[in-house]
Design a protein that fits this description.
heterotrimer; A mainly alpha (255); B mainly alpha (277); C alpha+beta (333); B: 277 residues; mainly alpha; C: 333 residues; alpha+beta; Rossmann fold; OB fold (Dihydrolipoamide Acetyltransferase, E2P); five-stranded antiparallel sheet; 27% helix
């Protein structure tokens, strides 16, 4: 049985990776069809020359960075407070935001923003996208940080208090440094989720805040475009490396 | 923790959650009971009509299709994922590596992974081109823009969510139970069915939930792989909020979808499964 | 000897060390055999090799004369009572017991029922059939594990330190029950333990194992009174080594007056006494500052610390080995 299982596993992993590999390989194809007609970096240069794409990428990065910073900080503070004493209301609301389907989160935020706009002179734009991203990544941040806190011995903080530190000082000087890997993991998660998001972003983005996934989606809808292949390859490799590096750092810290 | 400090720590998150999660959902609840205005706005007459409309023939069919596609995808994930989880749990070294290998595609964007299947399945895509080149078929097979493609896309997207909880329960199995089974005369296949499968039921429930729920609410995959028709509930909702501009009806559908998800989670989840999640 | 199990030069290597080093053993049908040794000596590995849960690096295993070395565990007519009992948590007591029977095609449904009933009665589990493992006591769980392994009528039943989790009082009681059980069912038992008292009281024969090798095999009395090595002597009980001879505390005679035959007689001073319930241990110090322990039956010791006494024993009570430590075993035992 062991041999069948190994064979099956190889097949399963192939199933998981082949589509992405195929995509990447054909990003180097000179023609836009699935027939190999020679190696070419043509599509990659097209990507870098496309103004719309470059702008969208910059937007995506700004949004992801802002949302990550906000979510991580707010989430770390909340996570710490919840670790000390549970807050069922907050946890359940966060779980709710995690469990509602993306499309529902998206339209609810759209409805919310439109309703708010009746009172202020604001329209959809980068700020609404950032807020939306914070809304769905906050739960991730809190959960990751809570998980990390659960491996932390509360006795250490008590020792700090015993030695004369205030609660805030104990947090800052004892807990926070130990929490950094968890915060880094939370930040990475928020960043990834934000960069990738299409559904919610497309509903709450304004004219000036087109993101990378939105552009990719438009291109994909129109048909197969090798530029998307090139973008996909770059994003996959980029994110992949980011994850691998994060894993290495984590395992190094652990040992 | 002193309450003053605690309030400081919790307020930002509480504020964000209240304004960006609770309030929007409240507005949606309100809208679901209102009527569509002439130019697509939302106006006062309170009504339950939106909820009854969901079950008429057209929309009921979409609901049914969503359940069946999600169900088929979940079943396939279970059948495909279980042997993989078994393999990883039995690997003596490199278990973490193998697990990460399963999760890695998940970290690349869903959009890209769905697009990859567009590239493979279309008429001029890789599969058809290859089959034609090998003279197995003469005309391209219509592999894309149908329910089958959507299922493939869903399975591809959520398979890792099935493998992880399954792996977690299989890994916790007391190995002496497997030894005992073999010791008493059960061949490996029998041990699988009589010992391993019954004891991994909590992992299977968790995996089924983790796959079925996102599949049910899927938007992107049926949109791109289903050919722009309103394949599933997610597409219906998006459609109502953009093209059709019937926000009250869209809100009602959204609430129904969310309600089903919550019922599934709270109803099926026992304490053990909640721990896994 | 009617040999039911034979091990020939069985060896098991792991990447880090050699767990079993060329052991050979023969078990007689119907006997209660113990494999005795300190932790890490390879006895559990040997058990797993016999069960088929590990494959040997070299050597052969014969069951009833046929070679089973390369057979998987489910094709050997050998069953195991695991140290943790390994009861299936999702099955009831009766389902657990029936598990092995259901794999055998030669047994039909009514036969299964009958055998089950007999086994439940034999192990005093009647009435507990529908309970789950987590609803019965530890002792009952052990009996279920025994029932499950015995109901399939194995050629050899392997028991992996089944008494180590029990407290001393219970241990003695279960020991007696096990011995009775084995006599009643007549199946060959191979019992693994690190407790010499258990091995000595239960076995028809036993083997002492250390560092992957079998030091000596024989009857309990034979090994206790005629150990072939210092290790075996010291493992099975206490030994006093005086002037190159070994003598057990219960063989040492102690008195205030000089004994009539002064061949082997040592003056000593009592340094302390220890009350052990049914006997008293008297520690003495010889002129050479060597320590010697004598054991006297009965709750009273006629001697006190500081008394001057004479120690002596019969030649025949001496152990047939010298006190020179074997270099291979001296370090680390």
């Amino acid at each position: 049985m062991k041999r069948w299982l190994s064979l099956y596993a190889a097949g399963a992993y192939a199933f998981l990776y082949l589509p992405l590999l195929v995509l990447s390989v054909f990003s180097f194809n000179r023609s836009r069809f699935a027939v190999w007609q020679g190696f070419s970096l043509h599509w990659y240069s097209e990507v870098f020359r496309n103004e719309q794409l470059v702008n969208a990428t910059i937007n995506s990065l700004i949004i992801a960075a802002s949302a990550t910073v906000l979510s991580t900080i707010i989430g770390a503070l909340a996570g710490y407070a919840i670790w000390k004493r549970r807050s069922p209301w907050l946890m359940n609301s966060l779980y709710l935001s995690l469990l509602t389907p993306e499309i529902v989160t998206g339209i609810s935020l759209l409805a919310f923003f439109q309703w708010v706009f009746r009172f202020f002179e604001v329209r959809l734009g980068m700020h609404t996208v950032i807020l939306a991203h914070v809304s769905f990544s906050l739960a991730y941040a809190v959960i990751v940080i809570l998980a990390r806190l659960r491996t932390f011995d509360p006795v250490l903080e008590e020792a700090a208090l015993d030695l004369g530190a205030t609660e805030w000082q104990a947090f800052r000087r004892v807990t926070l440094p130990n929490l950094l890997p968890g915060i880094a993991a939370a930040a990475l998660l928020c960043f990834t989720v934000s960069i990738d998001d299409y559904v919610i972003t497309s509903l709450v983005a304004g004219v000036d805040s087109e993101t990378l996934p939105m552009v990719i989606y438009a291109m994909a809808r129109k048909g197969v475009n090798p530029m998307v292949n090139a973008l996909s390859a770059m994003i996959t490799v980029g994110l992949g490396m980011l994850i691998v590096v994060a894993e290495r750092i984590q395992t190094e810290r652990a040992s | 923790m002193k309450s003053r400090l605690r309030i400081w720590f919790l307020s930002p998150a509480a504020f964000m959650t209240a304004t960006l999660v609770a309030l929007p959902m409240g507005i949606i609840c309100a809208y679901s009971l209102m009527t569509r205005g002439a130019y697509g706005g939302v106006i006062r007459p309170w009504t339950l009509e939106n909820f009854t409309r969901i079950f008429d023939r057209l929309y009921g069919a979409i609901l049914l299709r969503s359940f069946s596609l999600a169900g088929i995808a979940t079943l396939l994930c279970l059948l495909l994922g279980f042997p993989l989880a078994l393999y990883i749990a039995r690997a003596k070294r490199r278990r973490n590596f193998l697990l990460n290998l399963v999760m890695l595609p998940f970290w690349t964007s869903l959009l890209i992974r769905t697009y990859a299947w567009m590239f493979l399945l279309r008429d001029t895509g890789l599969i058809n081109t290859a089959l034609q080149a090998l003279h197995i078929i003469r005309k391209p097979l219509p592999l894309l823009f149908n329910d089958g493609a959507v299922v493939v896309g869903l399975v591809y997207a959520y398979l890792p969510f099935m493998v992880l909880p399954l792996y977690a329960t299989i890994e916790k199995l007391d190995p002496s139970l497997l030894d005992a089974s073999a010791d008493l005369g059960a061949r490996p296949w029998t041990t699988l069915w009589r010992v391993i499968v019954p004891l991994t039921r909590s992992g299977m429930s968790a995996g089924i939930l983790l796959v079925f729920i996102p599949c049910l609410g899927a938007y992107l995959t049926p949109d791109l792989l289903g050919g722009g028709r309103t394949v599933m509930v997610g597409n219906l909702v998006q459609n109502q909020f953009t093209t059709a501009r019937d926000w009250p009806f869209g809100s009602a559908v959204s609430l129904l979808l969310t309600g089903i998800v919550l019922v599934l989670l709270l109803g099926v989840l026992g304490k053990r499964e909640r721990e896994l999640l | 000897m009617d040999t039911v199990l034979e091990l020939r030069a069985l060896t098991k290597d792991y990447p880090s060390h050699r767990a079993v080093n060329g052991i050979s053993l023969r078990l007689e049908r119907g006997e209660f055999f113990s494999l005795l040794g300190p932790s890490g000596c390879g006895k559990t590995t040997t058990l797993r090799l016999i069960a088929g849960l590990e494959t040997p690096t070299s050597g052969e295993i014969y069951l009833n004369g046929s070679r089973v070395t390369s057979l998987p565990p489910y094709e050997r007519n050998v069953t195991t009572v695991f140290q943790s009992y390994a009861l299936f948590p999702h099955l009831t007591v009766s389902q657990n017991i029936a598990f092995g029977l259901e794999q055998k095609r030669s047994v039909n449904a009514s036969e299964i029922k009958k055998r089950m009933k007999d086994m439940l009665t034999l192990l005093q589990l009647s009435g507990k059939e529908e309970r789950r493992p987590n609803q019965i006591s530890g002792g009952e769980r052990q009996r279920v594990a025994l029932a499950r392994a015995l109901v399939v009528s194995p050629d050899v039943l392997l028991l992996d330190e089944p008494l180590s989790a029990l407290d001393p009082k219970l241990r003695k009681q279960v020991r007696a029950e096990l011995k009775n059980l084995q006599r009643r069912v007549g199946i060959t038992f191979l019992f693994i333990t690190h407790d010499q008292e258990e091995a000595l009281s239960l076995s028809d024969r036993l083997a002492v194992m250390v560092k992957g090798e079998i030091e000596q095999t024989g009857s309990p009395r034979g090994l206790y009174q005629q150990p072939r090595s210092r290790f075996v002597a010291e493992f099975l009980g206490e030994v006093n080594w005086i002037d190159g001879a070994g003598v057990r505390p219960e063989s040492v005679c102690i008195s205030r007056e000089r004994p009539p035959d002064p061949a082997r007689c040592y003056p000593a001073t009592v340094t302390g006494t220890t009350f052990l319930g049914d006997c008293v241990q008297i520690e003495t110090s010889l002129a050479t500052s060597q320590r010697c322990v004598a054991q006297v039956q009965g709750g009273r010791s006629p001697f006190n610390a500081g008394d001057d006494v004479y120690l002596w024993w019969n030649q025949g009570d001496e152990l047939p080995i010298s006190s020179a430590p074997e270099p291979a075993l001296a370090a680390g035992t």
